[in-house]
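Question: Hello, beginner here. Any chance you could explain the protein record under this note? Any guidance would be welcome.
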Amino acid sequence: MDRAGTPTTSRLFAFATALILVLAGCSRTGSDGAEDSAPAEAAETSTTVTLEEVDPEQRTTTKPATTTTEPPNRPNIDWDELPPVDATPDLVQEGYEGRLLVYGLVIDEGNGPVLCGMGILTSDPPQCEGIPIVGLDWDTVDHELKSGTRFGDLTLIGNTDYDTFTLSEPAFNINYFKARQTGEDASESESTPPPCPEPEGGWWSDTTDGTRVGSQDYNEAIDVVNRRELIDIDIYEPDEARPDHVNVSPSDTGWTPGVLVIRMPAVRPDDEERIRASWGGPLCLVAEDAPTIRDLDRLVDEIFDRWTELVSPHPGAALYRDGDKISVVMNVATVEAQERLDAEYGPGLVEVSGRFWPIDQ
C-alpha cells in the first residue's frame, strides 16, 4: 500500500480503441475536486428508468438504479451459477472460443453504450472511456438517466474482438443481493502484517511519543529515507485498540496512525534515530533482499515498451507497480501471457489478471 511521500508508477494505456483508463486511481466515489464536476445543467434531478417506466415520459421514481427486479428477458437468473462479482476472473486458456462474462458500469452519452475501463470520473453523471457494446437494449435493464446520459451496473455476456464487445444474449442488472461475493476485495485492501516481531505488549507499546503520529510526522519521517533505495513503505493498522495517549489532531482528516513499516535493501546505523526524531509511533525498520521500488518502476517501463512481444498484440487495461510485484490488467487475460512473463522475469514478480470471465471454459 502506497502512502503519501512514496513514489508510485502507473502506466495507463490510451489506445485508439479506447479500451482503457482515463485517470490513475479514479473511482466512482471519492474526489470532489472541480476537475470532476459535471456541467451546470447536471444539477437537475436524476431520473431512474426502470423496466416499468421508460422513455418518453422519464418520470422521476424512487427506485434504485440497480434493483432486485429481474428483467423479463432473463426471468430466472441463477446467480449461484455465475462467477462472484468481486473476484478476479480465471485466466483464459489458449484457443478459447467460448462466451465471456463481465460485470461493470455501462455509460451511454448518446453515441452508444460503452463498458467502462478501470478509471471512472466521479462527475454527475459519471464519465469514462472503454469498449463499445453491440446489442444492448436500454429498455430491458434498469438504469439512470441524467443530462442525456444513461448509465447502470450491468452483467454482459458475449464475445470481443478487442475493439467492441458483442452481446450473445440480453444484458441484465447486477443483483448485489443475490450475486455471489467472496470478500476478495476487502481482504486485499488489508495491510500485510509487519515483517518485524510484534512487541510483547502489542504494537502500540512501541510508541515513543503519542503526539507525533500524524500525517505530517509520517511525511517528515520518510523524508529521511525517501531518496534512498526502498522496497516499500507502509502503515500497518494493528487490530488492537489505540491507547488514549496516542493522539491525532481532529484536523488531520483521513489519516489513521499505525505501525510505520519501512523495508529497504540496507539499513544504516543512524536510520532509526533519525526517523524517531519525527515519528513517535510504532516503527518496523527492516533490511530485505527484494526488488526495490526503482527496480519495479524500471520493469513497468520495460514491459510497457515490449507489450506486444511479452504480453499480447491486443491493448491492455493497466500496468503498474503493486506493492512488491507488477500487475498487468487486461480485458482478456491469458495463460500464455502469464507463462511468457514468468519465463522472462521469474514466477510471482509479474501478475496477469483480467476483467472478463471465460464462462464456458
Observations:
- Residues 213 and 257 are 6 Å apart (CA to CA).
